[in-house]
Specification:
The complex is a heterotrimer of chains A (266), B (569) and C (437). Chain A has three helices and 19 strands. Chain A is mainly β. Chain A starts with a strand and ends with a strand. Chain B is an alpha/beta fold and 569 residues long. Chain B has one domain: Metal-dependent hydrolases (TIM Barrel, Alpha-Beta Barrel). In chain B, strands 1, 2, 3, 4, 5, 19, 20, 21 and 22 form a nine-stranded mixed β-sheet that branches. Chain C folds into three domains: 45 residues; 205 residues, 3-Layer(aba) Sandwich (Rossmann fold); 167 residues, Dimethylsulfoxide Reductase, domain 2 (3-Layer(aba) Sandwich). In chain C, the strands form five sheets. Chain C has a nine-stranded mixed β-sheet with strand order 5-4-20-19-18-6-7-16-17, sandwiched between helices. Classes of the chains: A mainly beta (266), B alpha/beta (569), C alpha/beta (437). Chains in contact: A-B, A-C, B-C. The interface between B and C is large, with 60 and 64 residues. Strand 16 of chain B pairs parallel with strand 8 of chain C.
């Protein structure tokens, strides 16, 4: 495993699009080559070296490459986007599109991450020590294919629109979630250990939501069907089971309708 | 204007009977000429194929439902690389529903120079023309839809042929339209109430006229008006297993009718995307090809032409004035559905669709289109389309060419299907080894389409006197062996001329040309009855005033080419 | 004999009435009276005649006063700020013609601009919803001729689209609705007791911010599933009744506005309203239509669509078109300091954007192209007055149901005043000079 370390040395006037800050783009490259890569800002194209010091080098392949990004990265977008393997560590708060379209590998964000993280994620793992923004693991605008695989763990809170159009994979949120969780989902699993506000599982076809805390307003189309004993993310407890969204279409298997499931810890 | 001499290319021109001979093509003053002087610029076409510019008889490229397709599918832009502008080019993007700039450039890249917008809702005609005006390079025309129009339904119900013709000529002028298009006759009006007409004898709610009467009436009106193109129909029951019977019944309505026009057109009925209408079986379970029955019938009827609507097995966007069909489709695939019913006139629906080679129905649809084309006895009457974007994007025409010209390429497609055996079992394509030649392809893509459109005096051939629309492809018919070379060469013209102007030079677009909009201005006898009927309907039932309806030529049709026809008696 | 111009299109709101009659002075130079328009539309035409109209561009000075400059200087300044900026915002577009919008797009492409229109604070949520679930819709005349169930959800046409009910939705005697208002049942869903609600046959006065839940409950009711006793403050019996009232209609039309596009959930509210409409098509015929505000916001979306592939929030900064409201939307760009110049045309963000965004506009190199003095022109460095589209220059506009209507020129603009299209053409030429092409 080779490591590339990028440390921000100067804050940009606008925002930097760091589509090259991932193992796939930096594999097989030397520090000098990396420093010469484009780092677009609006219509201008500064290079990585204009805003970051670069040490280390890429591994032979993405899987053998670790990318460490240091500093205040709140004006840097796309860290870890499109990656298929390897590792990314973000030592600072950062902006949008963290891990968007990723298919493998692991991202660890030590601070907070911005909106649209993990868009259409297909595989891999993301750990966020701080909060995530809105549209975590949502589909791209207009696409009915959202997150399909992989695992996300946010230790802080998340914003709104988590898991929109989710199809697979799992999201674990230690903190609270804002409105609209797994809207339009057709698979996948989201665990909220904190509290939720409203619109959990709206228009959900299939999938599972596990809520440990409170919810302000339940969707009218979720029906209580009984209690179950479950172990979720290491916690054994009794959960009230709801099926829904009964206002939405549902596929049949062996003649029976398959609903989305919402489990609320008692 | 510059003179050009395209030297030493392998020329394919079915109109002149030139089948791959080495010939020089001369261009002067915007036209093909016999010869040019020594100062002419020479284009070296040695080892290359030369044809007249392509003519597309049916594609959805301009108008409200196309734009719905663009705006409601941001994800479509991610299916292809979005290209920045360069030189004379604007930026261009979109895969199944390209922007207008991409539409112009990609047709040019395929060596096409004329494209007909397949369906124009008259109430929205201004929108269609705004998009046509913004589409670079290609000459275009648009077909207003008539098959669900309240005036047409009432006049035909009353048996008032002359009034029908008068109204049609008025509407063609108002909308700057080119031909009579008829989509799901009667069914889209029924859809105004959530109903449909799936057989040609189902009466339309309230108007109480059948699709058969509508089709027949429109065919007769078309010949009364002596239009360049024939009545252009998308028959009822599209996409349903067993629908080949509805198709044959519709086609039979043309029997015994002969073409009347001064444009060399011989057919009285053009059936569009006939692949979607050639299905046997009764359910998706016993779904099978009936390409044989359809091809047999069209082969035997000289007064019918068709375009295929080849399925390309892509993720694409369906869009049609067959509103009820689109609703049916969204119930099948559960994807987003946009619908617009248009007062007094028509409707439309748009739904994304993924044609997967692993789904046997899709595999069969792919095969059926090819089967029909390979059963054709006269490729002048079976045209290349993908009903863009319904069966696939028009950018796949070179790929379809490859399949038509190479049995090996078809076998590779079969082999990539999860249910290969089941698909092979249900289509005659499985055992067909016919491979079309470039001569036949030229018929399907320019000579035949130009003739069917009544435009053979302008396009579709390299006969001196015709428009200087010439395409040169990097394809050597004498030495080419790999079918992939077909797809590659015919998707990237080496040179393209439009009206004698160099548009593509060495594979690069160097000019946006001077595109024209083709429309038909038919003169009929004065008809106070129809004038009154129009005024009344605008007064009471339309929500736009009559004086605001017409598409003003001055800037929506900046470069018109008008066909003046005298249909007075 | 009065000098009357008829079939005039009113260029104020998305209703785009095209039956106005304007009475001119005998010499055709002045508008004397406006017939058939609502009060707002009439004022649109009449106020264009104001004696104290600004007729030349004005540049803000250091001391806060303004100084008149020529259109040529204005074009040069505009081109310069657009070319110098790394990421300029080009916002508005909703109160001008498609022809002008098109020239603006050429400029934006040349300068790598962010092109956004007023949908960004209005029906942008609807556009997002349509991208997720589509939209079963129709033209206004189709609803006029067929609809027997008319729903106004989160909108108040009595105030915002004053002639909508008399021209299209409630009162006309259509082809299949010969009894006029008596052919129709009108249902209003709104937390407020609005003037529109006072005309309705039924008013569901739901809890504010709970439209998503109520719409979901309707879908549950359609399927005959069970409901909690109350949803959004509405008793379940009323919800089942409303569901039956809709299902029993032969054509349901739902009109909706800011009450749902800009309240909690935004696009999700529209998304589920569209789902309700789609579900209704399993039982009867149903359509849904957004009540677009500006007279040509729809047109801006259409032109952006056919030229770039997206209806608003279009990011051209990297030479290709990209789209993601939340990132590429004007307010997010301004508040996050992601743009460094502001070009505003045919809209008034100074009045309609949150003050946090307006403060940013005030700090940036900026130009506002608008016939009026507005809160926007007050904070921009350069104000360029232009002719009123639909009054002093014609041009294509798109109605709320996407129908294109060509607006007319009725009188000349003030002497020497340019139109949007003319000024933008000058700017484009200057931009090309800046870029050396």
């Amino acid at each position: 495993m080779e490591t590339v370390t990028l440390t921000i040395k100067e804050q940009p006037p606008l925002f930097l699009e760091a589509e090259v800050f991932n193992p796939d783009a930096l594999a097989s490259k030397s520090a000098a080559e990396i420093a010469a890569l484009p780092l677009p800002m609006g219509k201008t194209t500064p290079v990585v070296g204009d805003y970051f010091t670069v040490t280390g080098k890429g591994g032979a392949t993405a899987a053998e490459t670790k990318v460490v990004v240091n500093g205040d990265l709140t004006k840097v977008k796309y860290i870890g986007a499109h990656m298929s393997a390897g590792e990314v560590v973000i030592n600072g708060n950062t902006d949008m599109y963290v891990g968007a379209w990723m298919t493998g590998g692991k991202i660890t964000a030590k601070g907070t991450i911005g909106h649209f993280a993990a868009t259409a994620m297909k595989g891999g793992e993301i750990i966020v020590e701080g909060d995530a923004g809105n549209y975590l693991a949502a589909a791209y605008r207009g696409d009915w294919r959202g997150m399909q695989g992989g695992r996300i763990h946010v230790k802080g809170n998340v914003g709104s629109d988590t898991g929109t159009f989710m199809m697979g994979g799992e999201i674990v949120i230690d903190g609270n979630a804002d409105v609209h969780v797994m809207t339009h989902a057709d698979g996948g699993k989201t665990v909220i250990k904190g509290n939720a506000k409203s619109r959990l599982g709206g228009q959900m076809v299939r999938g599972e939501i596990y809520l440990f805390g409170s919810v302000d307003v339940m969707m009218p189309g979720f029906n209580y069907v009984g209690d179950v004993e479950l172990e979720v993310e290491g916690v054994k407890a009794k959960f009230a089971e709801y099926i829904g969204d009964t206002g939405e279409r549902h596929p049949k298997s062996k003649g029976k309708l398959i609903y989305g499931k919402l489990y609320k810890k008692k | 204007m510059a003179e050009y001499l395209i030297k030493n290319g392998f020329v394919f021109d079915p109109v002149q009977g030139i089948n791959g001979d080495k010939k020089d093509i001369a261009i002067k003053d915007g036209k093909i000429v016999e010869s040019v002087g020594a100062s002419a610029k020479v284009i070296d076409a040695a080892g290359k194929t030369v044809m007249a510019g392509g003519v597309d008889i049916h594609a959805h490229v301009a108008g409200p439902k196309v734009n719905v397709g663009r705006n409601f599918r941001p994800e479509d832009k991610k299916q292809a690389i979005y290209e920045p502008g360069r030189g004379v080019r604007r930026m261009s993007g979109g895969f199944s529903v390209p922007t207008v700039f991409k539409t112009g450039y990609e047709y040019a890249n395929m060596g096409y120079t004329t494209v007909m917008e397949a369906a124009m809702p008259p109430f929205y005609a201004r929108h269609v023309h705004e998009e046509i005006r913004d589409t670079p390079i290609i000459d275009q025309g648009a077909y207003p839809v008539f098959g669900n129009n309240w005036f047409v339904l009432e006049y035909l119900k009353n048996g008032e042929a002359e009034n029908t013709a008068a109204y049609i000529s008025w509407l063609l002028r108002m909308t700057k339209g080119f031909a009579i298009k008829c989509v799901n006759p009667g069914g889209t009006e029924a859809w105004g109430w959530g109903l449909n007409c799936t057989s040609i004898h189902d009466p339309v709610p309230y108007f109480d006229i059948t699709p058969a009467e509508i089709v027949k009436g429109l065919i007769e009106a078309n010949e009364y008006l002596k239009l360049p193109h024939s009545m252009h129909v998308h028959s009822n029951n599209l996409g349903n297993p067993g629908n080949y019977e509805t198709t044959l019944e519709t086609l039979k309505l043309a029997e015994g009718i002969s073409a009347k026009n001064d444009f060399g057109r011989e057919q009285v009925l053009h059936h569009t995307h006939i692949q979607f209408h050639s299905y046997g079986g009764t359910t998706w379970g016993d779904f099978e090809s009936r390409a044989d029955k359809i091809a047999d019938y069209v082969n035997s009827q000289k007064n019918i032409t068709c375009d295929i609507g080849f399925v390309t097995l892509d993720e694409t966007t369906t869009m049609t004035a067959d509103g009820p069909f689109e609703h049916h489709l969204c119930e099948l695939n559960h994807l987003k559905w946009a619908n617009t019913d248009v007062e007094l006139e028509t409707g439309s629906g748009v739904v994304p669709y993924v044609y997967s080679p692993d789904i046997y129905v899709c595999g069969l649809q792919w095969a059926i289109g090819l089967e029909i084309a390979l059963l054709a006895k006269d490729s002048m009457r079976f045209h290349m389309t993908t009903d863009h974007p319904n069966a696939g994007p028009f950018t796949r025409y070179p790929r379809v060419m490859k399949w038509l010209m190479s049995a090996k390429a078809r076998d590779e497609m079969f082999a990539g299907m999860k249910n290969e055996d089941k698909v092979r079992d249900r289509t005659g394509l499985s055992t067909m080894d016919r491979e079309l030649s470039l001569y036949e392809i030229a018929m399907m893509t320019r000579a035949g389409t130009a003739k069917a459109l009544g435009l053979s005096h302008m396009y579709g051939s390299l006969t001196p006197g015709l428009c200087g629309d010439v395409a040169v492809y990097d394809y050597n018919p004498e030495t080419a062996s790999d079918p992939e070379a077909i797809e590659k060469a015919f998707g990237k013209a080496a040179f393209l001329f439009k009206q004698g102007e160099l548009i593509i030079n060495d594979g690069e677009i160097v000019s946006n040309g001077n595109k024209r909009t083709l429309w038909v201005n038919v003169k009929t006898n004065e008809n106070p009855q129809v004038e009154r009927d129009i005024a009344l309907k605008f007064n009471k039932f339309y929500t736009v005033n009559q004086n605001n309806y017409e598409v003003a030529a001055h800037h929506y049709v900046p470069n018109p080419y008008v066909f003046e026809i005298d249909a007075t008696v | 004999m009065a000098n009357i111009v008829s079939d005039v299109i009113c260029t104020f709101c998305g209703t785009l009435c095209d039956d106005l009659e304007i009475e001119l002075s005998d010499d055709g130079k002045k508008i004397k009276e406006v017939y058939h328009a609502c009060a707002i539309g009439a004022e649109k035409f009449l106020h264009s005649q104001a004696e104290d109209r600004i007729t030349r561009p004005r540049m803000m000075q250091e001391d806060g006063t303004t100084k008149e400059v020529s259109y040529e200087e204005a074009a040069k300044y505009t081109a310069k700020i657009l070319c110098d900026a790394k990421k300029p915002l080009m916002y508005g577009w909703s109160s001008t013609s498609c022809e002008a919008q098109s020239v603006g797009h050429e400029i934006a492409e040349a300068v790598g601009g962010m092109v956004d229109n007023t949908a960004t604070v209005c029906h942008g949520s609807s556009l997002i919803a349509v991208q997720d679930v589509g939209i079963p819709s129709c033209t206004l005349g189709e609803a006029m001729n067929r609809a027997d169930r008319v729903v106004f959800w989160g909108c108040n046409p009595a105030h915002a689209h004053p002639r909508h009910m008399s021209r299209y939705s409630v009162y006309p005697r259509g082809f299949f609705t010969g009894k006029g208002a008596k052919s129709r049942k009108v249902i209003v869903i709104d937390p407020r007791k609005t003037d529109t609600a006072s005309l309705a046959d039924a008013h569901l006065q739901l809890d504010q911010g709970r439209d998503y839940e109520l719409l979901s409950a309707l879908r549950v009711a359609f399927r005959g599933e069970k409901l909690p006793d109350f949803v959004a403050g509405i008793p379940k019996d009323q919800i089942y009744e409303a569901a039956d009232l809709l299902k029993s209609g032969r054509f349901v039309i739902i009109y909706f506005g800011m009450g749902v596009t800009q309240s909690l959930g935004k696009n999700h509210n529209i998304d589920i309203a569209i789902a309700v409409t789609r579900d209704l098509n399993d039982y009867t015929k149903a359509a849904i239509m957004p009540m677009r505000g500006h007279y040509n916001v729809t047109g801006s979306g259409e032109v952006l669509g056919w030229q770039f592939g997206f209806p608003y929030c279009v990011d051209l900064s990297r030479g290709i078109a990209r789209y993601n409201p939340g990132e590429t939307s004007s307010n997010d760009l301004l508040v996050r300091d992601e743009v460094d110049a502001a070009f505003i045309l045919g809209s008034d963000p100074g009045a309609h954007f949150p003050i946090s965004s307006v403060k940013k506009i005030a700090q940036l190199p900026s130009v506002a192209i608008d016939p009026h003095l507005t809160p926007t022109t007050a904070v921009c460095k350069l104000h360029v007055p232009v002719a009123f589209v639909g009054v002093e220059v014609g041009g294509c506009c798109y109605r709320m149901d996407n129908v294109p209507i060509e607006s007319r020129k009725v009188v000349d603009p003030p002497e020497g005043m340019l139109t949007d299209q003319e000024f933008l053409t000058m700017v484009l030429a200057e931009v090309r000079k800046c870029k050396g092409v």
